[in-house]
Design a protein that fits this description.
By secondary structure, this protein is of the alpha+beta class. The chain has helices spanning about 1-20, 45-50, 100-110, 135-140, 200-210, 225-230, 255-265, 265-275, 290, 305-310, 325-340, 370-380, 395-405; strands at about 30-35, 55, 65, 70-75, 80-85, 115-120, 125-130, 155, 160, 165-170, 175-180, 190-195, 215-220, 230-235, 240-245, 280, 320, 345-350, 360-365, 410-415, 420, 425, 440-445.
Length: about 450
């Protein structure tokens, strides 16, 4: 018996150095390069590192506690109460309280908030809504509702939050974030993240190849090329919806013209030519993997029917804008050609152009894989705040069909999100929306501390 105990102790002692070797080490600076503004809303990488929400998404797509530790609904989901996590502080040391939550959320969305009113009640935040909103916990996990301290820092380029990293500096296109030692979730492994912004994809890949970058972007249309170049790619499932949103004013106040546009777009050409057969063609707002009924929505182009619906009417010239990089601009140009084939005169303009925008090509990223809140996310992101009350497949299909029959939004493709890594990056995972979860990343060339 004593011999067995001695052997067990020896095995445990020998295992300690191995544990020390495999434990993620603390320290080091991660070098990240991005093409767009890292503070953009929604989806900016810096926002996800600096700011937290009242809730966050679990791996299974449901809301779980974050700055709020529990919540309850009353009056058939017309009133929600969220109790805050105690002892949380903003990066400047200011305690988080219900008043700061109310101030932040009011500044974020104002009259466009999905709730009617919000109040600070002790250590809780209370939302009241005119119509039932069963998906509020999931909505609050979205990037649009992350909490920043009002009146501190720069709310656009240097917000003060409660997240695992805090803003340190921004100089000559380099944004530096440092670890929040007192983060309520625990300190991240990295000491800092150095983020080079507005870097072209080719420049990002070159820097990765010569060791000047650790994490770079891989657009969906370049995934095949990235694999051919043997980059270490981490990719999500198709989570980014490419969709065309339409105005219901001006020439497009005519629903028949909007229906003609929906039939004139060639999804196959967009998928095969622009996006290199990545992702999946869709005629539904939710992907097939989420609902199983997407095949019920047609995706084929029908130019004859489009001409029939137009009825010989020659509408005034339409404007089409596209958010994003070169691939989105090419996609917009191809859509414009499709619509000209159907008798529409379409001009592609820059995003934010002063003239009225009739059509907008957008990417809307799923932040959950639960169908009911996912559909609500998409509709709100598209500017169509239709309450999603149904949770059954039949009810969700009916809601989707109602929205799509209005032709205010035309789903086109679902695309993956991806990034490429250097060999020193350990334990990178992607969130449900494809965002790199850098708070859990460590670097392999940092010497780990010995086990105590």
């Amino acid at each position: 018996m004593l011999r067995q105990i001695a052997i067990s102790c020896l095995v445990a002692a020998l295992a300690l150095p191995a544990a020390a070797r495999t434990r993620p080490p603390y320290g080091g600076k991660l070098r990240v390069e991005v093409e767009r503004d890292p503070w953009q809303r929604p989806g900016g990488l810096a926002r996800s590192l600096v700011l937290d929400g009242l809730t966050k998404m679990s791996p299974d797509g449901t809301a779980q506690p974050a700055l709020a530790i529990e919540w309850k609904s009353e009056n058939d989901d017309h009133r929600w109460q969220f109790r805050l996590r105690p002892g949380v502080h903003f990066h400047d040391g200011t305690p988080l309280n219900s008043s700061s939550i109310v101030a932040s959320l009011t500044a974020l969305c104002g009259a466009a908030c999905p709730w009617t009113a919000i109040h600070a009640v002790g250590s809780s935040v209370v939302f009241t809504i005119d119509s039932s909103l069963p998906n509020l916990p999931e909505l609050l996990a979205g990037d649009d509702y992350r909490i920043a301290l009002e009146g501190a820092g720069n709310p656009v380029t240097a917000p003060v939050g409660t997240g695992p990293f805090q803003f340190t500096a921004s100089t000559n296109g380099v944004l530096t974030l440092s670890a929040n030692d007192n983060c309520w979730q625990g300190r991240p492994f990295l000491d800092a993240i150095e983020m080079h912004v507005h870097r072209a994809i080719r420049d990002q890949w070159l820097d990765l190849s010569v060791g000047r970058a650790d994490l770079v972007e891989v657009p969906a249309e370049q995934l095949r090329e990235a694999h051919d170049q043997r980059l270490a790619v981490v990719a999500s499932p198709p989570v980014s919806l490419l969709a065309l949103t339409l105005s219901d004013s001006g020439a497009l106040a005519n629903p028949s013209l909007r229906a003609a546009i929906a039939l004139a777009v060639d999804r196959g050409a967009l998928s095969n030519v622009i996006f290199q057969k990545q992702g999946e063609i869709t005629g539904s707002l939710l992907p097939a993997a989420v609902t199983g009924y997407s095949f019920l929505f047609a995706t084929d182009r029908d130019l004859s029917k489009a001409h029939e619906l137009r009825g010989g009417v020659t509408p005034s010239p339409l404007t089409l804008s596209a958010e994003g990089g070169a691939a989105m601009q090419l996609a917009a140009q191809r859509i414009a050609l499709n619509l000209r084939d159907a008798g529409f005169n379409v001009q592609v303009v820059s995003p934010g152009a002063p003239q009225h925008i009739d059509l907008a090509l957008r990417r809307i990223t799923l932040e959950t894989n639960q169908p009911q809140p996912a559909l609500e996310f998409i509709l709100r992101a598209a500017g169509l705040p239709v309450p999603v009350q149904e949770s059954t497949p039949e009810g969700l299909y009916k809601t989707e069909r109602q929205v799509l029959d209005s032709h205010m939004i035309i789903p086109l493709l679902y695309l993956p999100r991806a990034c490429a890594l250097s060999g020193r990056v350990r334990d990178l995972r992607l969130s449900l929306d494809g965002t790199p979860q850098l708070a859990g990343v460590s670097l392999s060339d940092i010497q780990p501390e010995a086990a105590p």
